[in-house]
Amino acid sequence: MQAIFITGATGYIGTRLTKLLLDRGHHVIALVRKGSEHKVPAGAEVMVGNPFDAQTFQQYIPAACVFVQLLGVPHPSPKKAKQFKEIDLRSVKASADAAAAAGVLHFVYVSVAMAPSKLMQAYQQVRKEGEKYCLSKTFNCTFIRPWYVLGPGHWWPVTLLPFYGLAEIVPAWRKKARTMALVTINQVLNILVNVTENESLPLRILEVKDIRNPVFKKSAPVRTLQEKPSYL
Q: Per residue in 52-91, is it b (16+ CB within 10 Å) or e — as a string?
């Protein structure tokens, strides 16, 4: 099966994705900083390195593998603008450099929805710069652009569901609301599994509507996690 190299494998999405990929028979290689080895799900190959320095981990990346970039600041908020540059942007640049040096064919980057938002402008700008940097390399790119991912410990946005319902009947709000709609952790995991298992393209951008309703040439059913309430 496919070799998949993951940064952020001990995080909110990364831990769940690693388990799913292992269950499906893939060879998962997880990049972690020293001291976090025990956080990686059992069965994955653990590689210790500095995610901000490509030279410390590029030798561990198999040529022609799929590289999944998940490392980033948890719980993004307007107060974390400095951290976005110091962590999110630095890490994606180091990952892109390492992936290019290793001869990776497909680079998957979990970005963010780009509909204009004054509240999260700094976060969007950093992710936009990250995408641009990836495109400067020779590998195929897939950018996945959720807005907010609902899941355990991340349920507060369900209070916004009445607003989304109202936006559907107000034409001036509808397009932006759909672009910034909520997605579940299972939907994000499903799209990540699909893009790693399907043939890559020079550039594929998956917006919220694509995360909710993915369409791929090959069928790849995913065993989803029972972690969402019945009203979603």
A: bebebbbebbbeebbbbbbbbbeebeeebbebbeebbbbb
